[in-house]
Design a protein that fits this description.
Number of domains: 2
CATH architecture of the largest domain: Roll
Strand order of the largest sheet: 5-4-3-7-6
Helix content: 25-40%
CATH topology of the largest domain: Chitinase A, domain 3
Number of helices: 3
Structural class: alpha/beta
Shape: elongated
CATH superfamily of the largest domain: Transcription elongation factor, GreA/GreB, C-terminal domain
């Protein structure tokens, strides 16, 4: 299995979710199943079916997270020294050529991506265009509305 890159923050969030699923969610769904069983006939019991479906989702998510954690390569962005190049975990300040608007992104793993927080997936088109470049260089990104050009203003490892 290929390694899955995660920042230290992303790995911590997955560990917390796994802990919550195992200790809180799993116990709640077991209790819901027990209550639904106590109602009698299971063949027409919607609460029982809903609880069983939720149990399947929780168990599937637990397996998914455990698999990701087993294959994870945890990278601490603050410990990176990539010589000013954009790499996984780097925080990049960009300026769009057309509008002059500035934006800051951190390149993170697939599970951590959240555009509203400025976290972009390492597999996203913009991250792929930025990887390997340095401050002062221009990255061209194929966007749905056409090619967008971004100048890299600064690369930080925080």
């Amino acid at each position: 299995m290929a390694t899955i890159p995660l920042t230290t923050r992303g790995a911590q969030k997955l560990r917390e979710e796994l802990q919550r699923l195992k200790t809180v969610e799993r116990q709640a769904v077991i209790q819901a199943i027990a209550e639904a069983r106590a109602q009698g006939d299971l063949s027409e019991n919607a609460e029982y079916e809903a609880a069983k479906d939720k149990q399947g989702f929780i168990e599937g998510r637990i397996l998914e997270i455990e698999g990701k954690m087993a294959a994870a390569q945890v990278i601490d962005p603050a410990a990176l020294d990539a010589g000013g190049k954009v790499v996984f975990g780097a925080t990049v300040d960009l300026e769009e050529d057309k509008t002059g608007s500035e934006v800051t992104y951190q390149i993170v793993g697939e599970d951590e991506a959240d555009l509203k927080q400025g976290l972009i997936s390492v597999g996203s088109p913009i991250a792929r265009a930025l990887i390997g470049k340095e401050a002062g260089e221009v990255a061209e990104v194929q966007a749905p509305g056409g090619v967008r050009r971004y100048e890299i203003v600064e690369v930080r490892y925080v």
